[in-house]
Design brief:
With 672 residues, this protein is mostly helical. Among the domains are: 103 residues, Serine Threonine Protein Phosphatase 5, Tetratricopeptide repeat; 128 residues; 129 residues, 2-Layer Sandwich (Heat Shock Protein 90). The protein has 25 helices and 5 strands. Strands 1-2-3-5-4 form a 5-stranded mixed beta sheet, covered by helices on one side. Strand 4 and strand 5 form a beta hairpin. The longest helix is centred in the middle third of the chain and has 134 residues.
């Protein structure tokens, strides 16, 4: 009982603050650093913590801000500012949940758990520590997880779950093997020592208390603390020896604990416990020197500091002492006072101890006190079982909540996967469809190229035929000139030569006839020359002949009337054959579309020259269409493709009931 009180105060005052937090700004860093300085007064530290909190409240919800807020919450906790600690810890949890910052959520839960320990709400404390544990584990942050195990061990100790306390401390120590967090390692050894002592595993209790003492001796940050951990540990070791009835060894350890300088001033609780335990071991050895002075010294300190459980222990020890001294009235008085105080404080262990002592010193009411003792003992056992069951239930419910969250997260993941899969399938189908369209377009381009090649071959063939016809015509003309015109000229020349020698009327008439013959020959030569010019013009305008044939065929084979004009100034010989083919195909495709869809009565075609541009205009007075919503068919796509291939510009104007106009211009420069 006394051992437990000492450890609770000693350990809970030693909660560590991680001094390695990264500052979010120079000012925050300054205030937090000052707030952590234990050489400053509590008022100054609280003021610095308040300033840091005000700055952080105005900052954005970043990881650095959340880290600093957790440090502020821990500082408020250490400075016993409970309401502020809860406020900040709750703010940290809320802001961390919004961004799924598991580490800072867990740290916030840990701070809330410590606050509930101080409030005596151990079930709530255990709940928050368990939630923190579940979040710390996946983050692989071993230091925070280990500290959380230590904090949970305190709750288990307070609720008499000694086996659970040992397990939590062992789990914590497994993370502390190579760390510098010696204070929490000391706490773990102490808690295992307490739990082993309560489980009557005294050898194990001594092993772990000596490990704790070794940490005190090795590390100045523990040994030089005003909490006086060395004195606490000597008291704990002595208490185990008391339970082993080895009071001589117990006295040795109690005296070592009391030898610490300034113990009474710095930690009167530990001093009073050591003094009372020393007096009790002396009493057990019947060494009554300094008794009951030591008992009363410890009692006075405890009463002044309102350490009610310690007061009960001191009065019960005095009652036993007075029984040994045969002072039954004083023994009954002390036992009864202890009983009344235990009832007031409602500490079950103290109540059982006082009832047990009363049954020993008041024989007439011994039966009554014994029955009450048994009743309360059974009730305590039931409460301990309930506490263990409660912890198991909290753990189960927490696991259930986490399991439900995991299931919900899995469902959300499955939904995300489903939507992603659907999207991928949609994208795949779009790609396939797009690829098929590109393939069709490629096939169409290839077909157009093949058609262009055929047209070009046809035009070459036609050109070859024309050349052959030209050669034949040249030969014919040469024969005509040689056999006809030249023979007649030669005959006329000879006759004129012979007539030059004559001067009669017949000669004059003959010369006149031969002059007429020369005029006829001149006319024949002129006609031959004209024929040659017409041939050259026909050869130059062979493309125009193809276009004219197309337009004549449209006029004779289809119902719409058609009119056309072609600028004679266009130099067709200078125009590339590929462009000629595209112009012909565009004109052909346009006429086909008009015949199929326009229901037109008249068609107008114009091929003209405008400076360095050639313009093609095709107009009809058909039903028209809405160019903004009309889906483009293969025909229009082909026209667009050919215009683009030729480097031209296409413009289509159409309205329903107003006909359609296709206007294309090709930039050809000086070649036009």
């Amino acid at each position: 009982m006394i051992f437990f009180i000492i450890l609770a105060v000693g350990c809970k005052q030693a909660k560590e603050i991680d001094a390695n937090e990264s500052p979010s700004s120079d000012s925050v860093y300054h205030y937090l650093t000052s707030a952590k300085r234990k050489d400053l007064s509590a008022t100054v530290r609280i003021e610095n913590t308040n300033k840091a909190f005000r700055i952080l409240t105005a900052k954005e919800n970043t990881k650095s801000t959340r880290n600093d807020l957790n440090t502020v919450a821990q500082l408020y906790y250490d400075l016993r500012q409970e309401s502020k600690a809860i406020e900040v810890a709750t703010k940290v949890v809320e802001s961390s949940i919004s961004v799924k910052d598991s580490l800072n959520i867990a740290r916030g839960y840990n701070t809330l758990g410590n606050q509930f320990i101080d409030k005596g709400a151990n079930d709530s404390a255990y709940y928050f520590f368990l939630k923190a544990e579940k979040l710390f584990s996946p983050t692989r942050d071993s230091i925070y997880l280990a500290k959380n195990y230590i904090d949970k061990a305190f709750v288990q100790l307070y609720e008499s779950d000694y086996s659970g306390c040992e397990l939590s401390c062992i789990q914590a120590l497994s993370f502390y093997k190579s760390s510098s967090y010696v204070q929490n390692q000391y706490n773990a050894f102490n808690l295992i020592g307490i739990s082993s002592n309560e489980l009557k595993n005294f050898d194990n209790a001594l092993i772990y208390h000596r490990k704790a003492l070794d940490f005190v001796n090795r590390y100045p940050e523990i040994s030089q603390s005003k909490v006086h951990y060395r004195s606490s540990t000597y008291n704990n070791i002595g208490y185990v020896y008391q339970n082993l009835n080895n009071h001589r060894e117990a006295i040795k350890n109690f005296n070592l604990g009391l030898a610490e300088r300034n113990l009474l001033k710095d930690n009167p609780l530990v001093y009073a416990a050591l003094t009372d335990n020393l007096a009790y071991s002396k009493f057990k050895l019947k060494e009554y020197q300094d008794l009951p002075r030591l008992f009363f010294e410890a009692l006075k300190i405890r009463e002044v500091n309102k350490l009610y459980s310690g007061v009960v222990a001191s009065k019960l020890h005095l009652s036993e002492f007075y029984v040994a001294k045969s002072d039954s009235l004083s023994a009954q008085k002390m036992a009864y006072e202890a009983f009344l105080l235990a009832k007031k404080s409602r500490i079950s262990g103290d109540l059982l101890g006082s009832l047990k002592q009363l049954s020993a010193v008041e024989q007439k009411n011994a039966s009554l006190y014994s029955k009450e003792y048994i009743r309360i003992s059974d009730s305590i056992q039931n409460e301990e079982r309930k506490a263990k069951d409660k912890f198991a239930r909290i753990a189960f419910e927490t696991d259930e909540i986490i399991s439900q969250k995991d299931k919900l997260a899995e469902q959300n993941r499955n939904l995300v996967y489903f939507f992603i899969g659907t999207l991928l399938i949609g994208v795949l189908l779009f790609v396939i469809r797009n690829q098929r369209a590109k393939n069709r377009e490629l096939l169409l381009v290839q077909a157009q190229q093949k058609a262009n090649e055929e047209i070009y071959s046809l035009m070459i063939s036609q050109q070859r035929t024309i050349e052959e016809s030209r050669e034949k015509e040249k030969k014919r003309i040469a024969q005509e000139l040689h056999d006809g015109v030249l023979g007649r000229l030669f005959g006329a020349r000879l006759n004129l030569d012979s007539l030059n020698k004559l001067a009669d009327d017949d000669a004059i008439e003959s010369r006149f006839n031969y002059l007429n013959e020369l005029k006829n020959i001149e006319q024949d030569i002129r006609e031959i020359s004209h024929d040659l010019n017409r041939e050259k013009h026909a050869l130059i305008n062979n493309f125009l002949a193809i276009v004219n044939n197309l337009l004549e065929e449209q006029k004779s084979s289809h119902s719409p009337g058609i009119e056309w004009t072609i600028d004679e100034k266009i130099k067709w010989d200078n125009i590339d054959n590929a462009l000629k083919i595209n112009i012909f195909r565009i004109l052909q495709e346009s006429l086909q579309n008009i015949n199929k869809y326009a229901n037109a009565e008249n068609i107008f075609v114009k091929i003209g020259k405008n400076y360095e541009k050639m313009e093609l205009e095709i107009t009809d007075d058909g039903i028209g269409f809405d160019v903004s919503i009309k889906k483009k068919g293969i025909g229009l796509q082909n026209i667009e493709s050919r215009v683009k291939e030729s480097g031209g510009d296409l413009m289509i104007k159409s309205k329903k009931g107003k006909g359609t106009k296709i206007f294309i211009d090709f930039t050809l420069g000086q070649n036009l």
